[in-house]
């Protein structure tokens, strides 16, 4: 009897361990707790008074964006022209495409600049839809407490996403709706026309943001981000690594012989697809020439294949499946224990 009771106890312990492990995996608080995040209050804002700076040149929206993000992250107040010039020149050398000076910095150059001057977790994210781009942007903002860079007006300009409000905490669930955002554009103080740019930390509904955050498009020359919602997001180090995918996620073919060197690799992550919304944004600065991210003259193709990788999309989307797997594993182990208990010899 003592031995039989011990076996039943073993089975109970195994089941209990499996159940506890499953609950820990499925618990929506585990990710937020592990990251040491502050309590969720319905939203977050990273903007600080004194962090905004106006771009000092029509070409320097990306450089001013780096300066603003650095000011937010480092609690600084750098508004110098020299600083913006330094960022601009450095990022120009990291462009994916060989652009004339009048075309400024492309998305890869901007991503490289944010990685180098702010935080090495920044990655260029090319999303198939507005909803997927916004969903992943606010999730990663919440998990890292770092701003997100947005390419607006089909890639002609750059904004910084500095805050948002949502119906649930993106750090603990993928089932949430973004109700509003806070954006900061460096053209403010230089030009404010047709919404480009509004005062720093302006609140927008998601419908309003959709007017400005539109798919990348440069008609004279195809680019690897065409038709995608391009943002530069801080990807948590614990996220699933980006992996090359084939077929629907497309892999960019190697360039022809007229390619130019790519000074630094710029990882590209593709966010999960949702329904692609209709783009309705006006061209903000067409009359002002090249302050834009997109080139004004055709670039030459890049040297090497740039795989667009599959994003984890919903950070917690796999948690239920993992939890179920852990629980089932516990049941299987328990069943094996029961089988061993029944196969006892006579006299046991």
Topology, pairings included?
Layout: H1 2-26, H2 29-35, E1 43-45, H3 61-74, H4 81-92, H5 107-117, E2 122-127, H6 130-144, E3 148-152, E4 157-166, E5 178-184, E6 202-205, H7 206-212, E7 229-234, E8 268-270, E9 308-310, H8 319-342
Parallel strand pairs: 2-8, 8-9
Antiparallel strand pairs: 1-4, 2-7, 3-4, 3-7, 4-5, 5-6
Helix pairs in contact: 1-8, 3-4, 3-5, 4-5
> Biggest sheet, open or closed, and with what strands and sense?
9 strands, mixed
Any low-confidence stretches, pLDDT <50, length ≥5? 1-5, 13-30, 239-266, 271-292, 294-323, 344-348
Tally the helices: what do you get? 8
| Helix fraction by DSSP (H/I, runs of at least 4) | 25-40%
Radius of gyration: 25 Å
Mean pLDDT across all residues, rounded? 73
Seen as an oligomer or otherwise, the chain set is: single chain
The succession of helices and strands, N to C, reads HHEHHHEHEEEEHEEEH
Tell me the count of domains. 2
Which structural class do the helices and strands define?
Answer: alpha+beta
Shape: globular
Number of strands: 9
Ends: how far apart? Answer: 9 Å
**Portion in beta strands:** 5-15%
